[in-house]
Amino acid sequence: MGNIYAVTNQKGGVGKTTSTVNLAAALADYRKKVLLIDLDPQGNATTGCGIDKENLSNSSYEVVMTESKAVDAIVRPDELSFDVMPANTDLTAAEVQLLDVKLREHRLRLALESTREKYDFILIDCPPSLSMLTVNALVASRGVLIPIQCEYYALEGLSSLLKTIERIKQRANPNLEVTGLIRTMFDARNNLANQVSRQLINHFQGKVFHSIIPRNVRLAEAPSHGLPVLNYDRASRGAIAYMALASELMRRDKKATEAAGG
Ligand code: ADP
Ligand code: MG
Protein backbone atom coordinates (compact mmCIF):
# COMPACT_ATOMS: atom_id res chain seq x y z
CA MET A 1 0.00 0.00 0.00
CA GLY A 2 1.35 3.39 -0.96
CA ASN A 3 1.94 6.46 1.11
CA ILE A 4 -0.14 9.61 1.06
CA TYR A 5 1.55 13.01 0.81
CA ALA A 6 0.02 16.42 1.48
CA VAL A 7 1.53 19.19 -0.64
CA THR A 8 0.99 22.21 1.53
CA ASN A 9 2.01 25.72 2.49
CA GLN A 10 -0.59 28.25 3.56
CA LYS A 11 1.04 30.87 1.35
CA GLY A 12 -0.55 31.12 -2.09
CA GLY A 13 1.46 31.08 -5.29
CA VAL A 14 4.46 29.16 -3.98
CA GLY A 15 4.12 26.25 -6.41
CA LYS A 16 1.90 23.76 -4.55
CA THR A 17 -0.33 22.97 -7.51
CA THR A 18 2.53 22.99 -10.02
CA SER A 19 4.48 20.61 -7.79
CA THR A 20 1.53 18.28 -7.18
CA VAL A 21 0.58 17.95 -10.86
CA ASN A 22 4.14 17.56 -12.10
CA LEU A 23 5.25 15.18 -9.36
CA ALA A 24 2.19 13.05 -10.08
CA ALA A 25 3.11 12.96 -13.78
CA ALA A 26 6.78 12.24 -13.05
CA LEU A 27 6.00 9.42 -10.60
CA ALA A 28 3.62 7.93 -13.16
CA ASP A 29 6.39 8.19 -15.75
CA TYR A 30 8.48 6.03 -13.40
CA ARG A 31 5.64 3.49 -13.68
CA LYS A 32 4.18 4.23 -10.26
CA LYS A 33 0.42 4.06 -9.73
CA VAL A 34 -0.54 7.57 -8.73
CA LEU A 35 -3.66 9.37 -7.54
CA LEU A 36 -3.75 13.17 -7.39
CA ILE A 37 -6.40 14.59 -5.04
CA ASP A 38 -7.41 18.19 -5.61
CA LEU A 39 -8.41 19.58 -2.20
CA ASP A 40 -8.38 23.25 -3.19
CA PRO A 41 -11.75 24.85 -4.07
CA GLN A 42 -9.91 26.85 -6.76
CA GLY A 43 -9.57 23.56 -8.66
CA ASN A 44 -6.30 24.60 -10.32
CA ALA A 45 -4.88 21.08 -10.28
CA THR A 46 -8.15 19.84 -11.82
CA THR A 47 -7.91 22.30 -14.70
CA GLY A 48 -4.17 21.71 -14.98
CA CYS A 49 -4.96 18.04 -15.64
CA GLY A 50 -7.32 18.96 -18.45
CA ILE A 51 -10.55 18.33 -16.52
CA ASP A 52 -13.49 20.70 -16.90
CA LYS A 53 -14.21 21.67 -13.30
CA GLU A 54 -17.64 23.11 -14.11
CA ASN A 55 -19.02 19.72 -15.14
CA LEU A 56 -18.06 17.33 -12.38
CA SER A 57 -20.61 14.70 -11.39
CA ASN A 58 -18.53 13.81 -8.35
CA SER A 59 -15.61 15.58 -6.75
CA SER A 60 -13.57 15.73 -3.58
CA TYR A 61 -16.48 17.67 -2.04
CA GLU A 62 -18.79 14.64 -2.24
CA VAL A 63 -16.03 12.39 -0.94
CA VAL A 64 -15.29 14.54 2.10
CA MET A 65 -18.85 15.67 2.92
CA THR A 66 -21.17 12.84 1.87
CA GLU A 67 -21.12 9.06 1.97
CA SER A 68 -20.07 9.08 -1.67
CA LYS A 69 -17.22 6.64 -2.35
CA ALA A 70 -13.78 7.92 -3.31
CA VAL A 71 -13.68 5.61 -6.30
CA ASP A 72 -16.80 7.27 -7.77
CA ALA A 73 -15.07 10.64 -7.87
CA ILE A 74 -11.83 9.42 -9.45
CA VAL A 75 -11.20 9.97 -13.16
CA ARG A 76 -8.36 9.20 -15.55
CA PRO A 77 -7.85 12.13 -17.95
CA ASP A 78 -7.34 10.99 -21.57
CA GLU A 79 -3.78 12.09 -22.06
CA LEU A 80 -2.45 11.32 -18.58
CA SER A 81 -1.12 8.23 -16.91
CA PHE A 82 -2.35 8.96 -13.40
CA ASP A 83 -5.75 9.26 -11.71
CA VAL A 84 -7.34 12.47 -10.44
CA MET A 85 -9.97 13.23 -7.83
CA PRO A 86 -11.07 16.68 -9.05
CA ALA A 87 -12.37 19.70 -7.14
CA ASN A 88 -14.28 22.89 -7.81
CA THR A 89 -15.85 25.75 -5.86
CA ASP A 90 -18.36 23.32 -4.27
CA LEU A 91 -15.51 22.55 -1.90
CA THR A 92 -15.69 26.06 -0.45
CA ALA A 93 -18.82 24.99 1.41
CA ALA A 94 -16.97 22.07 2.96
CA GLU A 95 -14.73 24.41 4.92
CA VAL A 96 -17.74 25.53 6.95
CA GLN A 97 -19.80 22.33 6.85
CA LEU A 98 -16.90 20.28 8.18
CA LEU A 99 -17.08 22.13 11.47
CA ASP A 100 -20.42 20.45 12.18
CA VAL A 101 -19.75 16.82 11.27
CA LYS A 102 -18.55 13.86 13.30
CA LEU A 103 -14.86 13.00 13.00
CA ARG A 104 -14.45 16.23 11.10
CA GLU A 105 -10.66 15.98 10.91
CA HIS A 106 -10.75 12.37 9.71
CA ARG A 107 -13.22 12.53 6.83
CA LEU A 108 -10.65 12.26 4.03
CA ARG A 109 -8.58 9.60 5.79
CA LEU A 110 -11.65 7.41 6.27
CA ALA A 111 -12.89 8.00 2.73
CA LEU A 112 -9.55 6.85 1.29
CA GLU A 113 -9.25 3.66 3.33
CA SER A 114 -10.51 1.29 0.65
CA THR A 115 -8.95 3.16 -2.29
CA ARG A 116 -5.42 3.64 -0.93
CA GLU A 117 -4.24 0.14 -1.66
CA LYS A 118 -4.59 0.59 -5.41
CA TYR A 119 -1.89 3.24 -5.50
CA ASP A 120 1.85 3.59 -4.90
CA PHE A 121 1.53 7.32 -4.29
CA ILE A 122 -1.36 9.60 -3.41
CA LEU A 123 -0.61 13.33 -3.61
CA ILE A 124 -2.99 15.91 -2.15
CA ASP A 125 -2.95 19.48 -3.46
CA CYS A 126 -3.97 21.67 -0.49
CA PRO A 127 -5.63 25.09 -0.42
CA PRO A 128 -3.57 28.13 0.63
CA SER A 129 -4.71 28.09 4.25
CA LEU A 130 -4.48 26.00 7.39
CA SER A 131 -8.21 25.31 7.16
CA MET A 132 -10.17 22.18 8.02
CA LEU A 133 -9.47 20.90 4.49
CA THR A 134 -5.73 21.13 5.05
CA VAL A 135 -6.17 19.49 8.45
CA ASN A 136 -8.02 16.64 6.70
CA ALA A 137 -5.14 16.27 4.25
CA LEU A 138 -2.58 16.20 7.08
CA VAL A 139 -4.56 13.66 9.11
CA ALA A 140 -4.78 11.38 6.04
CA SER A 141 -1.09 11.71 5.11
CA ARG A 142 2.15 9.96 5.92
CA GLY A 143 4.35 12.79 4.69
CA VAL A 144 4.23 16.51 4.03
CA LEU A 145 5.85 18.16 1.02
CA ILE A 146 6.34 21.91 1.46
CA PRO A 147 7.00 24.01 -1.64
CA ILE A 148 8.89 27.18 -0.81
CA GLN A 149 9.69 30.12 -2.99
CA CYS A 150 13.09 31.41 -1.90
CA GLU A 151 12.21 35.06 -1.29
CA TYR A 152 12.19 37.46 1.60
CA TYR A 153 8.96 36.34 3.27
CA ALA A 154 9.46 32.64 2.55
CA LEU A 155 10.15 31.63 6.14
CA GLU A 156 7.29 33.66 7.51
CA GLY A 157 4.33 31.38 8.14
CA LEU A 158 6.49 28.30 8.00
CA SER A 159 6.55 28.09 11.78
CA SER A 160 2.75 28.09 12.03
CA LEU A 161 2.64 25.32 9.43
CA LEU A 162 5.20 23.30 11.39
CA LYS A 163 3.23 23.89 14.60
CA THR A 164 0.05 22.66 12.92
CA ILE A 165 1.88 19.56 11.71
CA GLU A 166 3.22 18.91 15.23
CA ARG A 167 -0.23 19.35 16.77
CA ILE A 168 -1.81 16.91 14.31
CA LYS A 169 1.01 14.46 14.92
CA GLN A 170 0.29 14.52 18.65
CA ARG A 171 -3.48 14.47 18.45
CA ALA A 172 -4.49 12.51 15.43
CA ASN A 173 -1.71 11.11 13.25
CA PRO A 174 1.48 9.99 15.07
CA ASN A 175 3.12 8.84 11.80
CA LEU A 176 2.98 12.25 10.15
CA GLU A 177 6.36 13.63 9.07
CA VAL A 178 7.74 16.46 7.00
CA THR A 179 9.19 14.54 4.07
CA GLY A 180 10.82 17.50 2.44
CA LEU A 181 10.94 21.15 1.52
CA ILE A 182 10.92 21.92 -2.20
CA ARG A 183 12.65 25.03 -3.47
CA THR A 184 10.43 26.30 -6.29
CA MET A 185 10.67 28.99 -8.99
CA PHE A 186 14.34 29.22 -8.19
CA ASP A 187 16.51 31.77 -9.93
CA ALA A 188 20.17 30.94 -9.30
CA ARG A 189 21.28 34.43 -10.44
CA ASN A 190 19.30 36.03 -7.66
CA ASN A 191 21.41 36.70 -4.53
CA LEU A 192 18.43 36.77 -2.22
CA ALA A 193 17.21 33.39 -3.50
CA ASN A 194 20.62 31.87 -2.77
CA GLN A 195 20.68 33.45 0.67
CA VAL A 196 17.22 32.17 1.60
CA SER A 197 18.15 28.76 0.20
CA ARG A 198 21.21 28.62 2.50
CA GLN A 199 19.03 29.63 5.45
CA LEU A 200 16.63 26.80 4.67
CA ILE A 201 19.44 24.27 4.50
CA ASN A 202 20.97 25.51 7.78
CA HIS A 203 17.66 25.41 9.51
CA PHE A 204 16.13 22.24 8.07
CA GLN A 205 19.27 20.36 7.02
CA GLY A 206 18.46 17.03 5.38
CA LYS A 207 14.78 17.95 4.99
CA VAL A 208 15.45 20.21 2.00
CA PHE A 209 15.25 18.24 -1.27
CA HIS A 210 18.48 18.46 -3.28
CA SER A 211 16.55 18.86 -6.51
CA ILE A 212 15.71 22.50 -7.13
CA ILE A 213 12.79 23.56 -9.33
CA PRO A 214 13.96 26.44 -11.54
CA ARG A 215 11.75 29.24 -12.75
CA ASN A 216 10.77 27.89 -16.16
CA VAL A 217 8.21 29.33 -18.54
CA ARG A 218 7.17 25.86 -19.77
CA LEU A 219 5.95 25.06 -16.24
CA ALA A 220 3.77 28.16 -16.28
CA GLU A 221 2.46 27.48 -19.81
CA ALA A 222 1.60 23.78 -19.42
CA PRO A 223 -1.57 24.24 -17.26
CA SER A 224 -3.24 26.38 -19.93
CA HIS A 225 -3.03 23.30 -22.17
CA GLY A 226 -4.44 21.12 -19.38
CA LEU A 227 -1.21 19.15 -19.25
CA PRO A 228 1.68 18.41 -16.89
CA VAL A 229 4.95 19.77 -18.24
CA LEU A 230 6.17 16.24 -19.07
CA ASN A 231 3.36 15.92 -21.63
CA TYR A 232 3.81 19.48 -22.86
CA ASP A 233 7.60 19.77 -23.22
CA ARG A 234 9.49 16.77 -21.95
CA ALA A 235 12.88 18.30 -22.64
CA SER A 236 12.25 21.50 -20.68
CA ARG A 237 14.25 22.33 -17.58
CA GLY A 238 11.03 22.21 -15.58
CA ALA A 239 10.24 18.66 -16.71
CA ILE A 240 13.78 17.48 -15.97
CA ALA A 241 13.69 19.08 -12.51
CA TYR A 242 10.40 17.40 -11.56
CA MET A 243 11.70 14.02 -12.79
CA ALA A 244 14.73 14.45 -10.51
CA LEU A 245 12.54 15.51 -7.60
CA ALA A 246 10.23 12.51 -8.12
CA SER A 247 13.19 10.17 -8.03
CA GLU A 248 14.36 11.75 -4.78
CA LEU A 249 10.85 11.43 -3.35
CA MET A 250 10.75 7.73 -4.28
CA ARG A 251 14.02 7.19 -2.36
CA ARG A 252 12.71 9.05 0.71
CA ASP A 253 9.43 7.18 0.48
CA LYS A 254 11.21 3.82 0.39
CA LYS A 255 13.35 4.76 3.39
CA ALA A 256 10.34 5.92 5.41
CA THR A 257 8.43 2.74 4.57
CA GLU A 258 11.40 0.56 5.55
CA ALA A 259 11.88 2.50 8.79
CA ALA A 260 8.21 1.91 9.59
CA GLY A 261 8.77 -1.81 9.04
CA GLY A 262 6.56 -2.00 5.96
P1 ADP B 1 0.08 27.53 -5.47
O1 ADP B 1 -0.63 26.27 -5.81
O2 ADP B 1 1.00 27.37 -4.30
O3 ADP B 1 -0.84 28.69 -5.29
P2 ADP B 1 0.98 27.47 -8.22
O4 ADP B 1 1.59 26.13 -8.43
O5 ADP B 1 -0.40 27.68 -8.73
O6 ADP B 1 1.07 27.88 -6.68
O7 ADP B 1 1.99 28.53 -8.86
C1 ADP B 1 1.68 29.93 -8.88
C2 ADP B 1 1.97 30.49 -10.26
O8 ADP B 1 3.36 30.36 -10.56
C3 ADP B 1 1.26 29.76 -11.37
O9 ADP B 1 0.88 30.69 -12.35
C4 ADP B 1 2.29 28.80 -11.92
O10 ADP B 1 2.08 28.49 -13.28
C5 ADP B 1 3.58 29.57 -11.72
N1 ADP B 1 4.72 28.69 -11.45
C6 ADP B 1 4.81 27.74 -10.49
N2 ADP B 1 6.02 27.16 -10.49
C7 ADP B 1 6.73 27.75 -11.49
C8 ADP B 1 8.08 27.62 -11.98
N3 ADP B 1 8.92 26.74 -11.46
N4 ADP B 1 8.45 28.42 -13.00
C9 ADP B 1 7.59 29.32 -13.54
N5 ADP B 1 6.34 29.50 -13.12
C10 ADP B 1 5.89 28.74 -12.11
MG1 MG C 1 -2.71 25.89 -5.84
TrEMBL record:
Transmembrane segments: none
Record-given protein name: Chromosome (Plasmid) partitioning protein ParA / Sporulation initiation inhibitor protein Soj
Domain of life (superkingdom): Bacteria
A Pfam family this chain is assigned to: AAA_31
Residue ranges occupied by any AAA domain in the UniProt entry: 4-178
Similarity comment: family membership: To B.subtilis soj.
